[in-house]
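hiii so my PI (J.) wants the whole complex modelled not just the main chain, which honestly fair. so below is everything: two entries, each one labled with what it is. i double checked the lines twice but i was tired so who knows lol
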Amino acid sequence: MNTGKRLMQKSLHIDPGKCTGCLQCEMACSLDNEGAFNPAKSRIKVFDFHAEGRFVPYTCTQCAEAWCMKACPVDAISVDTLTGAKVVSDALCVGCKVCTIACPFGTINYNQTTGKVLKCDLCGGDPECAKACPTSAITFIDADWTGLERMRDWASKTDSGTRAEA
Amino acid sequence: MARYVIVGAGPAGVIAAETLRQQDADGEIVLLGGEPEPPYSRMAIPYYLTGGIEESGTHLRKAQDHYAKLGIEVRQAAVSKVDTGANSLVLADGSALPYDQLLLATGASPVRPPVPGLDLPGVHHCWTLEDARQIADLADPGASVVLMGAGFIGCIILESLLARDVKLTVVEMEDRMLPRMMDQTGGAMIKRWCEDKGTSVLTSTKVTEIKAADGGGLQVVLDSGEQVPAALVVVATGVKSNAELAQDGDIKVDQGIVVDNYLRTSVPNVYAAGDVAQAPDHSTGGWSVLAIQPTAADHGRVAALNMAGVETTYKGNLAMNVLDTAGLVSVSFGRWDGGDGCETAESVDAENFRYMRLVFDGDRVVGALCLGHTDHVGVLRGLIQGDVRLGDWKARLQADPCRIMEAYLGSTLS
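here's the output for the full assembly
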Protein backbone atom coordinates (compact mmCIF):
# COMPACT_ATOMS: atom_id res chain seq x y z
CA MET A 1 0.00 0.00 0.00
CA ASN A 2 2.72 2.45 0.96
CA THR A 3 4.96 2.35 -2.09
CA GLY A 4 7.45 4.73 -0.61
CA LYS A 5 6.34 7.67 -2.66
CA ARG A 6 3.51 9.95 -1.88
CA LEU A 7 0.37 8.92 -3.72
CA MET A 8 -2.62 11.03 -4.51
CA GLN A 9 -5.06 10.51 -1.69
CA LYS A 10 -7.83 8.11 -2.53
CA SER A 11 -11.45 8.07 -1.48
CA LEU A 12 -14.21 5.54 -1.31
CA HIS A 13 -16.49 5.91 -4.30
CA ILE A 14 -19.97 4.56 -3.87
CA ASP A 15 -22.26 3.81 -6.81
CA PRO A 16 -25.61 2.81 -5.28
CA GLY A 17 -26.88 1.69 -8.68
CA LYS A 18 -24.49 -1.26 -8.57
CA CYS A 19 -25.30 -2.35 -5.02
CA THR A 20 -27.25 -5.61 -4.70
CA GLY A 21 -27.58 -5.44 -0.91
CA CYS A 22 -25.40 -8.49 -0.33
CA LEU A 23 -23.83 -6.88 2.78
CA GLN A 24 -20.36 -8.32 2.06
CA CYS A 25 -18.99 -4.83 2.83
CA GLU A 26 -20.55 -4.80 6.29
CA MET A 27 -19.22 -8.29 6.97
CA ALA A 28 -15.71 -7.42 5.83
CA CYS A 29 -15.68 -4.15 7.75
CA SER A 30 -16.80 -5.66 11.03
CA LEU A 31 -14.50 -8.66 10.67
CA ASP A 32 -11.45 -6.52 9.98
CA ASN A 33 -12.18 -3.81 12.54
CA GLU A 34 -14.07 -5.65 15.28
CA GLY A 35 -12.86 -9.20 14.78
CA ALA A 36 -16.32 -10.66 14.15
CA PHE A 37 -18.93 -10.91 11.41
CA ASN A 38 -21.25 -8.39 12.99
CA PRO A 39 -22.91 -5.92 10.62
CA ALA A 40 -24.23 -3.99 13.63
CA LYS A 41 -20.61 -2.95 14.32
CA SER A 42 -19.78 -2.18 10.70
CA ARG A 43 -18.62 1.32 9.88
CA ILE A 44 -20.24 1.11 6.46
CA LYS A 45 -23.98 0.54 6.36
CA VAL A 46 -26.18 -0.51 3.48
CA PHE A 47 -29.58 1.16 3.61
CA ASP A 48 -32.43 -0.76 2.09
CA PHE A 49 -35.02 1.29 0.23
CA HIS A 50 -37.71 -1.37 -0.08
CA ALA A 51 -40.17 0.82 -1.91
CA GLU A 52 -37.75 1.60 -4.73
CA GLY A 53 -35.98 -1.75 -4.63
CA ARG A 54 -32.57 -0.18 -4.22
CA PHE A 55 -29.71 -0.23 -1.75
CA VAL A 56 -27.41 2.60 -0.71
CA PRO A 57 -24.09 1.83 0.99
CA TYR A 58 -23.06 4.75 3.15
CA THR A 59 -20.08 5.68 5.27
CA CYS A 60 -17.88 8.62 6.25
CA THR A 61 -16.64 10.75 3.34
CA GLN A 62 -13.63 11.97 5.38
CA CYS A 63 -15.05 15.46 4.81
CA ALA A 64 -12.83 18.50 4.98
CA GLU A 65 -14.99 20.09 7.66
CA ALA A 66 -14.29 17.18 10.01
CA TRP A 67 -17.14 18.06 12.33
CA CYS A 68 -16.37 15.07 14.52
CA MET A 69 -12.74 16.03 14.93
CA LYS A 70 -13.45 19.68 15.67
CA ALA A 71 -16.16 18.89 18.20
CA CYS A 72 -14.10 16.33 20.13
CA PRO A 73 -13.35 17.79 23.57
CA VAL A 74 -10.32 15.60 24.21
CA ASP A 75 -8.46 15.62 20.88
CA ALA A 76 -9.20 11.95 20.28
CA ILE A 77 -9.78 12.29 16.51
CA SER A 78 -6.92 13.15 14.19
CA VAL A 79 -6.06 13.12 10.51
CA ASP A 80 -4.04 10.19 9.18
CA THR A 81 -1.57 12.11 7.05
CA LEU A 82 -1.10 9.17 4.70
CA THR A 83 -4.76 8.58 3.83
CA GLY A 84 -6.47 11.80 4.90
CA ALA A 85 -8.86 9.73 7.03
CA LYS A 86 -10.12 11.11 10.31
CA VAL A 87 -9.19 8.45 12.83
CA VAL A 88 -10.46 7.84 16.37
CA SER A 89 -7.89 7.04 19.03
CA ASP A 90 -9.48 4.51 21.36
CA ALA A 91 -6.90 5.40 24.00
CA LEU A 92 -8.04 9.03 24.10
CA CYS A 93 -11.78 8.71 23.38
CA VAL A 94 -13.75 9.08 26.63
CA GLY A 95 -17.05 8.04 25.03
CA CYS A 96 -18.79 11.41 25.45
CA LYS A 97 -20.53 11.00 22.05
CA VAL A 98 -20.41 14.70 21.15
CA CYS A 99 -18.97 13.74 17.76
CA THR A 100 -22.01 11.54 17.10
CA ILE A 101 -24.32 14.55 17.19
CA ALA A 102 -21.84 16.97 15.61
CA CYS A 103 -21.42 14.93 12.39
CA PRO A 104 -24.31 16.02 10.13
CA PHE A 105 -23.93 12.86 8.05
CA GLY A 106 -24.51 10.51 10.96
CA THR A 107 -21.44 8.45 10.10
CA ILE A 108 -19.73 8.32 13.49
CA ASN A 109 -21.49 6.09 15.98
CA TYR A 110 -21.25 5.05 19.59
CA ASN A 111 -20.33 1.47 20.39
CA GLN A 112 -21.95 0.62 23.71
CA THR A 113 -19.81 -2.51 24.07
CA THR A 114 -16.50 -0.64 24.09
CA GLY A 115 -17.73 2.75 25.31
CA LYS A 116 -15.93 4.37 22.36
CA VAL A 117 -17.05 5.76 19.01
CA LEU A 118 -16.63 4.06 15.64
CA LYS A 119 -16.00 5.56 12.24
CA CYS A 120 -14.45 4.61 8.95
CA ASP A 121 -10.65 4.99 8.96
CA LEU A 122 -10.19 3.71 5.40
CA CYS A 123 -8.50 0.66 6.96
CA GLY A 124 -5.20 2.52 6.87
CA GLY A 125 -5.39 2.91 3.09
CA ASP A 126 -6.70 -0.46 1.91
CA PRO A 127 -10.41 -0.53 2.70
CA GLU A 128 -11.87 -3.99 3.23
CA CYS A 129 -15.35 -2.97 2.06
CA ALA A 130 -14.10 -2.09 -1.40
CA LYS A 131 -12.15 -5.34 -1.64
CA ALA A 132 -15.18 -7.34 -0.55
CA CYS A 133 -17.69 -5.71 -2.88
CA PRO A 134 -18.47 -8.17 -5.70
CA THR A 135 -20.12 -5.62 -8.01
CA SER A 136 -17.76 -2.63 -7.73
CA ALA A 137 -20.47 -0.60 -6.08
CA ILE A 138 -17.72 0.42 -3.63
CA THR A 139 -14.36 1.29 -5.10
CA PHE A 140 -11.31 3.05 -3.74
CA ILE A 141 -10.06 5.52 -6.29
CA ASP A 142 -8.32 8.86 -6.70
CA ALA A 143 -10.14 11.44 -4.67
CA ASP A 144 -10.76 13.72 -7.63
CA TRP A 145 -12.95 11.13 -9.32
CA THR A 146 -15.25 10.16 -6.52
CA GLY A 147 -17.99 12.65 -7.06
CA LEU A 148 -17.76 13.56 -3.43
CA GLU A 149 -18.37 17.15 -4.39
CA ARG A 150 -22.05 16.64 -3.88
CA MET A 151 -21.57 15.43 -0.35
CA ARG A 152 -19.20 18.27 0.31
CA ASP A 153 -21.74 20.73 -0.96
CA TRP A 154 -24.02 19.37 1.70
CA ALA A 155 -21.31 19.79 4.24
CA SER A 156 -20.86 23.40 3.26
CA LYS A 157 -24.58 24.05 3.64
CA THR A 158 -24.35 22.89 7.21
CA ASP A 159 -20.99 24.53 7.67
CA SER A 160 -20.45 27.73 9.54
CA GLY A 161 -19.95 29.77 6.42
CA THR A 162 -16.63 28.72 4.93
CA ARG A 163 -16.64 26.58 1.84
CA ALA A 164 -15.22 23.10 1.85
CA GLU A 165 -11.52 23.13 1.07
CA ALA A 166 -11.78 19.98 -1.01
CA MET B 1 2.08 42.52 13.48
CA ALA B 2 -1.33 41.95 15.02
CA ARG B 3 -1.75 41.03 18.64
CA TYR B 4 -4.69 38.75 19.34
CA VAL B 5 -5.75 38.31 22.95
CA ILE B 6 -8.16 35.55 23.94
CA VAL B 7 -9.71 35.56 27.40
CA GLY B 8 -10.67 32.02 28.37
CA ALA B 9 -8.80 28.78 27.72
CA GLY B 10 -11.73 26.42 27.21
CA PRO B 11 -12.61 24.81 23.87
CA ALA B 12 -13.73 28.07 22.22
CA GLY B 13 -10.54 29.87 23.25
CA VAL B 14 -8.18 27.06 22.30
CA ILE B 15 -9.80 26.43 18.91
CA ALA B 16 -9.77 30.18 18.24
CA ALA B 17 -6.06 30.38 19.08
CA GLU B 18 -5.24 27.48 16.76
CA THR B 19 -7.40 28.88 13.97
CA LEU B 20 -5.74 32.29 14.30
CA ARG B 21 -2.35 30.64 13.94
CA GLN B 22 -3.48 28.81 10.79
CA GLN B 23 -4.55 32.13 9.28
CA ASP B 24 -1.80 34.38 10.56
CA ALA B 25 1.66 32.88 10.81
CA ASP B 26 3.22 35.95 12.43
CA GLY B 27 0.60 37.46 14.73
CA GLU B 28 1.11 37.42 18.46
CA ILE B 29 -1.46 35.18 20.18
CA VAL B 30 -2.03 35.34 23.93
CA LEU B 31 -4.44 32.86 25.54
CA LEU B 32 -5.45 33.77 29.09
CA GLY B 33 -6.79 31.05 31.37
CA GLY B 34 -8.34 31.58 34.78
CA GLU B 35 -7.46 28.25 36.39
CA PRO B 36 -4.09 26.79 37.41
CA GLU B 37 -4.42 23.91 34.91
CA PRO B 38 -3.42 23.32 31.31
CA PRO B 39 -6.40 24.07 29.01
CA TYR B 40 -8.89 21.28 29.71
CA SER B 41 -12.38 20.16 28.84
CA ARG B 42 -15.13 20.35 31.43
CA MET B 43 -16.99 17.81 29.33
CA ALA B 44 -14.38 15.19 30.21
CA ILE B 45 -14.70 15.66 33.97
CA PRO B 46 -17.39 12.97 34.41
CA TYR B 47 -15.02 10.43 32.88
CA TYR B 48 -12.28 11.52 35.26
CA LEU B 49 -14.74 11.02 38.14
CA THR B 50 -15.54 7.47 37.05
CA GLY B 51 -11.83 6.72 37.02
CA GLY B 52 -11.95 6.07 33.27
CA ILE B 53 -9.23 8.65 32.59
CA GLU B 54 -6.46 10.45 34.44
CA GLU B 55 -6.56 14.22 34.84
CA SER B 56 -4.36 14.51 31.76
CA GLY B 57 -7.14 12.78 29.81
CA THR B 58 -9.26 15.91 30.27
CA HIS B 59 -6.69 18.16 28.62
CA LEU B 60 -7.90 19.72 25.39
CA ARG B 61 -4.55 19.02 23.73
CA LYS B 62 -2.31 16.23 24.89
CA ALA B 63 1.20 17.29 23.86
CA GLN B 64 2.77 19.48 26.55
CA ASP B 65 4.47 21.67 23.99
CA HIS B 66 1.40 21.98 21.74
CA TYR B 67 0.85 25.69 22.40
CA ALA B 68 4.53 26.62 22.46
CA LYS B 69 5.04 24.90 19.11
CA LEU B 70 2.26 27.00 17.61
CA GLY B 71 3.64 30.18 19.16
CA ILE B 72 0.56 30.56 21.37
CA GLU B 73 1.40 32.11 24.71
CA VAL B 74 -0.76 30.48 27.41
CA ARG B 75 -0.90 32.54 30.58
CA GLN B 76 -2.82 32.17 33.83
CA ALA B 77 -4.24 35.56 34.62
CA ALA B 78 -7.47 37.05 35.88
CA VAL B 79 -8.79 40.01 33.92
CA SER B 80 -10.36 42.86 35.87
CA LYS B 81 -11.43 45.16 33.07
CA VAL B 82 -11.74 45.54 29.34
CA ASP B 83 -10.88 49.07 28.26
CA THR B 84 -12.34 49.15 24.76
CA GLY B 85 -11.34 52.83 24.35
CA ALA B 86 -7.68 52.05 24.90
CA ASN B 87 -7.86 48.57 23.25
CA SER B 88 -6.37 47.11 26.36
CA LEU B 89 -7.14 44.69 29.18
CA VAL B 90 -6.43 45.51 32.78
CA LEU B 91 -5.24 42.37 34.54
CA ALA B 92 -5.86 41.59 38.22
CA ASP B 93 -2.26 42.46 39.07
CA GLY B 94 -2.85 45.94 37.68
CA SER B 95 -0.81 45.47 34.52
CA ALA B 96 -2.15 46.34 31.08
CA LEU B 97 -2.37 43.95 28.14
CA PRO B 98 -3.06 45.80 24.89
CA TYR B 99 -4.73 44.03 21.97
CA ASP B 100 -5.60 44.67 18.35
CA GLN B 101 -8.30 42.01 18.28
CA LEU B 102 -9.91 40.63 21.44
CA LEU B 103 -11.92 37.44 21.91
CA LEU B 104 -13.98 37.01 25.06
CA ALA B 105 -14.40 33.28 25.58
CA THR B 106 -14.92 33.48 29.31
CA GLY B 107 -17.40 30.62 29.47
CA ALA B 108 -20.07 30.17 32.09
CA SER B 109 -20.29 29.52 35.81
CA PRO B 110 -22.62 27.36 37.85
CA VAL B 111 -25.74 29.07 39.13
CA ARG B 112 -25.89 29.22 42.90
CA PRO B 113 -29.47 28.72 44.02
CA PRO B 114 -30.68 30.76 47.04
CA VAL B 115 -30.44 27.89 49.50
CA PRO B 116 -28.91 28.35 52.97
CA GLY B 117 -25.96 26.08 53.68
CA LEU B 118 -24.29 26.00 50.25
CA ASP B 119 -21.08 27.21 51.92
CA LEU B 120 -20.79 24.16 54.16
CA PRO B 121 -17.91 21.75 53.66
CA GLY B 122 -19.06 18.83 51.56
CA VAL B 123 -21.21 20.95 49.21
CA HIS B 124 -19.71 21.28 45.74
CA HIS B 125 -20.50 22.30 42.22
CA CYS B 126 -19.15 19.97 39.57
CA TRP B 127 -17.67 22.45 37.13
CA THR B 128 -13.90 22.70 37.48
CA LEU B 129 -11.18 20.08 37.79
CA GLU B 130 -10.71 21.27 41.37
CA ASP B 131 -14.43 20.61 42.07
CA ALA B 132 -13.98 17.13 40.60
CA ARG B 133 -11.03 16.38 42.89
CA GLN B 134 -13.11 17.36 45.92
CA ILE B 135 -16.04 15.22 44.77
CA ALA B 136 -13.74 12.27 44.06
CA ASP B 137 -12.50 12.56 47.66
CA LEU B 138 -15.99 12.37 49.15
CA ALA B 139 -17.88 10.08 46.77
CA ASP B 140 -16.77 6.79 48.28
CA PRO B 141 -18.66 3.53 47.74
CA GLY B 142 -21.73 3.45 49.96
CA ALA B 143 -21.56 7.17 50.79
CA SER B 144 -24.88 9.04 50.78
CA VAL B 145 -24.85 11.69 48.08
CA VAL B 146 -27.53 14.23 47.19
CA LEU B 147 -27.48 15.65 43.67
CA MET B 148 -29.33 18.95 43.35
CA GLY B 149 -30.55 19.36 39.80
CA ALA B 150 -31.34 16.76 37.14
CA GLY B 151 -30.50 18.88 34.13
CA PHE B 152 -27.88 18.02 31.54
CA ILE B 153 -24.91 18.49 33.84
CA GLY B 154 -26.66 16.83 36.77
CA CYS B 155 -27.50 13.78 34.70
CA ILE B 156 -23.96 13.46 33.35
CA ILE B 157 -22.56 13.60 36.88
CA LEU B 158 -25.23 11.15 38.00
CA GLU B 159 -23.62 8.53 35.80
CA SER B 160 -20.21 9.15 37.40
CA LEU B 161 -21.63 9.04 40.90
CA LEU B 162 -23.42 5.75 40.25
CA ALA B 163 -20.18 4.35 38.85
CA ARG B 164 -18.62 5.14 42.24
CA ASP B 165 -21.31 3.05 43.96
CA VAL B 166 -22.68 5.85 46.10
CA LYS B 167 -26.18 5.86 47.58
CA LEU B 168 -27.70 8.58 45.43
CA THR B 169 -30.70 10.85 45.84
CA VAL B 170 -31.52 13.25 43.00
CA VAL B 171 -33.61 16.33 43.77
CA GLU B 172 -35.11 18.27 40.86
CA MET B 173 -37.47 21.21 41.33
CA GLU B 174 -39.11 20.83 37.90
CA ASP B 175 -41.68 18.11 37.26
CA ARG B 176 -39.30 15.82 35.37
CA MET B 177 -35.67 14.98 34.79
CA LEU B 178 -33.95 16.99 32.03
CA PRO B 179 -36.71 19.62 31.79
CA ARG B 180 -34.79 21.59 29.16
CA MET B 181 -33.73 18.62 27.06
CA MET B 182 -36.58 16.08 27.31
CA ASP B 183 -40.36 16.15 27.20
CA GLN B 184 -42.59 14.33 29.70
CA THR B 185 -42.35 11.02 27.86
CA GLY B 186 -38.56 11.01 27.71
CA GLY B 187 -38.08 12.52 31.16
CA ALA B 188 -40.31 9.85 32.70
CA MET B 189 -38.37 7.07 30.97
CA ILE B 190 -35.06 8.40 32.24
CA LYS B 191 -36.47 8.69 35.75
CA ARG B 192 -37.70 5.09 35.68
CA TRP B 193 -34.32 3.96 34.30
CA CYS B 194 -32.50 5.69 37.18
CA GLU B 195 -34.90 4.29 39.76
CA ASP B 196 -34.34 0.80 38.35
CA LYS B 197 -30.63 1.35 39.07
CA GLY B 198 -31.40 2.06 42.72
CA THR B 199 -31.34 5.86 42.57
CA SER B 200 -33.97 7.82 44.44
CA VAL B 201 -35.30 10.54 42.10
CA LEU B 202 -37.43 13.29 43.66
CA THR B 203 -38.98 15.55 41.02
CA SER B 204 -41.12 18.63 41.79
CA THR B 205 -39.05 18.85 44.95
CA LYS B 206 -36.92 21.68 46.28
CA VAL B 207 -33.99 21.70 48.64
CA THR B 208 -34.83 24.38 51.21
CA GLU B 209 -31.73 24.16 53.37
CA ILE B 210 -28.52 22.24 53.91
CA LYS B 211 -27.48 21.83 57.54
CA ALA B 212 -24.45 20.38 59.27
CA ALA B 213 -25.58 17.14 60.92
CA ASP B 214 -24.82 16.34 64.51
CA GLY B 215 -21.84 14.02 64.49
CA GLY B 216 -20.59 15.09 61.05
CA GLY B 217 -21.97 15.04 57.56
CA LEU B 218 -24.87 17.02 56.18
CA GLN B 219 -28.64 17.00 56.37
CA VAL B 220 -30.47 18.09 53.23
CA VAL B 221 -33.89 19.55 54.06
CA LEU B 222 -36.57 19.23 51.37
CA ASP B 223 -39.74 21.27 50.91
CA SER B 224 -41.70 18.10 51.73
CA GLY B 225 -40.22 18.34 55.21
CA GLU B 226 -38.17 15.21 54.65
CA GLN B 227 -34.47 15.29 55.56
CA VAL B 228 -31.88 13.31 53.63
CA PRO B 229 -28.48 12.66 55.23
CA ALA B 230 -25.50 13.21 52.94
CA ALA B 231 -21.73 13.00 53.03
CA LEU B 232 -21.66 15.03 49.82
CA VAL B 233 -24.06 17.41 48.09
CA VAL B 234 -23.42 18.16 44.42
CA VAL B 235 -25.08 21.32 43.13
CA ALA B 236 -25.88 21.25 39.41
CA THR B 237 -28.67 23.79 39.02
CA GLY B 238 -27.69 25.35 35.72
CA VAL B 239 -25.01 27.71 34.44
CA LYS B 240 -24.92 31.35 33.41
CA SER B 241 -22.63 33.25 31.08
CA ASN B 242 -19.56 34.96 32.52
CA ALA B 243 -20.38 38.28 30.88
CA GLU B 244 -19.25 40.52 33.76
CA LEU B 245 -16.14 41.69 31.93
CA ALA B 246 -18.23 43.15 29.16
CA GLN B 247 -20.73 44.78 31.44
CA ASP B 248 -18.95 48.00 32.40
CA GLY B 249 -18.01 48.98 28.89
CA ASP B 250 -19.83 49.65 25.68
CA ILE B 251 -20.12 45.98 24.76
CA LYS B 252 -23.77 44.97 24.47
CA VAL B 253 -24.81 42.34 26.99
CA ASP B 254 -28.14 40.56 27.37
CA GLN B 255 -28.23 36.95 28.64
CA GLY B 256 -24.67 36.73 27.35
CA ILE B 257 -22.45 38.95 25.25
CA VAL B 258 -24.48 39.73 22.14
CA VAL B 259 -22.70 38.93 18.86
CA ASP B 260 -23.62 39.20 15.20
CA ASN B 261 -23.26 36.65 12.39
CA TYR B 262 -19.51 37.15 12.51
CA LEU B 263 -19.31 36.54 16.29
CA ARG B 264 -18.46 40.21 16.64
CA THR B 265 -19.75 42.18 19.63
CA SER B 266 -21.07 45.73 19.44
CA VAL B 267 -17.40 46.83 19.55
CA PRO B 268 -15.83 46.04 16.16
CA ASN B 269 -12.51 44.57 17.30
CA VAL B 270 -14.03 42.60 20.18
CA TYR B 271 -15.50 39.16 19.57
CA ALA B 272 -17.19 36.63 21.84
CA ALA B 273 -17.48 32.85 21.56
CA GLY B 274 -18.74 29.82 23.43
CA ASP B 275 -20.83 29.74 26.61
CA VAL B 276 -20.56 33.52 27.06
CA ALA B 277 -21.79 34.45 23.58
CA GLN B 278 -25.42 35.13 22.74
CA ALA B 279 -25.38 34.39 19.04
CA PRO B 280 -27.90 34.23 16.19
CA ASP B 281 -30.01 31.08 16.47
CA HIS B 282 -30.78 28.87 13.48
CA SER B 283 -34.02 27.57 14.95
CA THR B 284 -35.69 30.73 16.19
CA GLY B 285 -34.21 33.52 14.12
CA GLY B 286 -33.46 35.27 17.43
CA TRP B 287 -30.39 35.10 19.63
CA SER B 288 -29.47 32.37 22.10
CA VAL B 289 -26.79 31.31 24.56
CA LEU B 290 -25.96 27.63 24.09
CA ALA B 291 -23.47 26.35 26.62
CA ILE B 292 -22.53 23.25 24.65
CA GLN B 293 -19.29 21.89 23.23
CA PRO B 294 -20.12 21.83 19.49
CA THR B 295 -21.27 25.45 19.66
CA ALA B 296 -18.10 26.49 21.48
CA ALA B 297 -16.02 24.78 18.79
CA ASP B 298 -17.94 26.43 15.93
CA HIS B 299 -17.88 29.85 17.59
CA GLY B 300 -14.16 29.68 18.30
CA ARG B 301 -13.34 28.83 14.71
CA VAL B 302 -15.65 31.37 13.06
CA ALA B 303 -14.69 34.18 15.45
CA ALA B 304 -10.99 33.54 14.80
CA LEU B 305 -11.43 33.51 11.03
CA ASN B 306 -13.14 36.89 11.19
CA MET B 307 -10.54 38.25 13.61
CA ALA B 308 -7.85 37.26 11.12
CA GLY B 309 -9.72 39.04 8.32
CA VAL B 310 -11.20 35.94 6.63
CA GLU B 311 -14.83 37.02 6.49
CA THR B 312 -16.91 34.04 7.56
CA THR B 313 -20.61 33.95 8.32
CA TYR B 314 -21.83 31.90 11.23
CA LYS B 315 -24.87 29.89 10.24
CA GLY B 316 -26.46 30.06 13.66
CA ASN B 317 -26.73 28.20 16.94
CA LEU B 318 -28.41 24.83 16.89
CA ALA B 319 -29.24 23.32 20.27
CA MET B 320 -27.92 19.77 20.45
CA ASN B 321 -27.20 17.52 23.36
CA VAL B 322 -26.20 13.93 23.86
CA LEU B 323 -26.28 12.40 27.27
CA ASP B 324 -25.55 9.00 28.75
CA THR B 325 -27.51 8.51 31.95
CA ALA B 326 -26.10 5.33 33.41
CA GLY B 327 -26.24 3.55 30.06
CA LEU B 328 -29.39 5.14 28.65
CA VAL B 329 -28.38 7.48 25.83
CA SER B 330 -30.58 10.48 25.09
CA VAL B 331 -30.24 13.04 22.31
CA SER B 332 -32.02 16.30 21.62
CA PHE B 333 -31.84 18.70 18.69
CA GLY B 334 -33.29 22.08 17.84
CA ARG B 335 -36.95 22.77 18.48
CA TRP B 336 -37.71 19.39 20.05
CA ASP B 337 -40.53 20.96 22.06
CA GLY B 338 -42.30 22.02 18.89
CA GLY B 339 -44.19 25.27 18.71
CA ASP B 340 -46.83 27.04 16.71
CA GLY B 341 -47.72 25.31 13.49
CA CYS B 342 -45.33 22.40 14.04
CA GLU B 343 -46.32 18.78 13.53
CA THR B 344 -44.82 15.88 15.43
CA ALA B 345 -44.26 12.17 14.95
CA GLU B 346 -43.44 9.85 17.81
CA SER B 347 -42.40 6.26 18.30
CA VAL B 348 -42.57 5.12 21.94
CA ASP B 349 -41.38 1.78 23.29
CA ALA B 350 -41.45 2.49 27.02
CA GLU B 351 -40.74 -1.08 28.03
CA ASN B 352 -37.43 -1.10 26.18
CA PHE B 353 -36.60 2.53 26.93
CA ARG B 354 -36.73 3.58 23.29
CA TYR B 355 -38.28 6.80 22.13
CA MET B 356 -38.05 8.91 19.01
CA ARG B 357 -39.83 12.20 18.46
CA LEU B 358 -39.51 14.35 15.37
CA VAL B 359 -40.85 17.87 14.99
CA PHE B 360 -41.69 19.16 11.52
CA ASP B 361 -42.24 22.67 10.23
CA GLY B 362 -43.72 22.18 6.78
CA ASP B 363 -41.67 19.47 5.10
CA ARG B 364 -38.53 20.06 7.15
CA VAL B 365 -37.39 18.50 10.42
CA VAL B 366 -36.75 21.29 12.93
CA GLY B 367 -36.30 19.34 16.14
CA ALA B 368 -35.86 15.84 17.51
CA LEU B 369 -35.57 13.76 20.66
CA CYS B 370 -34.16 10.26 20.84
CA LEU B 371 -33.84 7.89 23.73
CA GLY B 372 -32.12 4.54 23.40
CA HIS B 373 -31.20 5.25 19.77
CA THR B 374 -27.55 5.97 19.07
CA ASP B 375 -26.99 5.00 15.45
CA HIS B 376 -26.70 7.81 12.90
CA VAL B 377 -28.25 10.39 15.22
CA GLY B 378 -25.92 13.06 13.81
CA VAL B 379 -27.92 13.02 10.62
CA LEU B 380 -30.63 14.86 12.54
CA ARG B 381 -28.24 17.81 12.56
CA GLY B 382 -27.83 17.42 8.81
CA LEU B 383 -31.59 17.34 8.31
CA ILE B 384 -32.22 20.35 10.54
CA GLN B 385 -29.27 22.62 9.81
CA GLY B 386 -29.23 21.69 6.12
CA ASP B 387 -32.91 22.73 5.90
CA VAL B 388 -33.49 19.50 3.99
CA ARG B 389 -36.85 19.44 2.19
CA LEU B 390 -38.28 16.01 2.86
CA GLY B 391 -40.86 15.80 0.10
CA ASP B 392 -42.31 12.27 0.11
CA TRP B 393 -40.11 11.37 3.05
CA LYS B 394 -42.13 13.43 5.47
CA ALA B 395 -45.05 11.00 5.31
CA ARG B 396 -42.68 8.05 5.66
CA LEU B 397 -41.07 9.62 8.72
CA GLN B 398 -44.48 10.29 10.19
CA ALA B 399 -45.23 6.59 9.77
CA ASP B 400 -41.84 5.56 11.22
CA PRO B 401 -39.76 8.36 12.78
CA CYS B 402 -36.80 6.03 13.24
CA ARG B 403 -35.98 6.06 9.51
CA ILE B 404 -33.96 9.27 9.76
CA MET B 405 -30.97 7.98 7.84
CA GLU B 406 -33.08 6.69 4.95
CA ALA B 407 -34.95 10.00 4.90
CA TYR B 408 -31.69 11.91 4.69
CA LEU B 409 -30.26 9.74 1.94
CA GLY B 410 -33.55 9.62 0.08
CA SER B 411 -33.96 13.40 0.22
CA THR B 412 -30.40 14.44 -0.55
CA LEU B 413 -28.82 11.85 -2.81
CA SER B 414 -31.67 10.84 -5.08
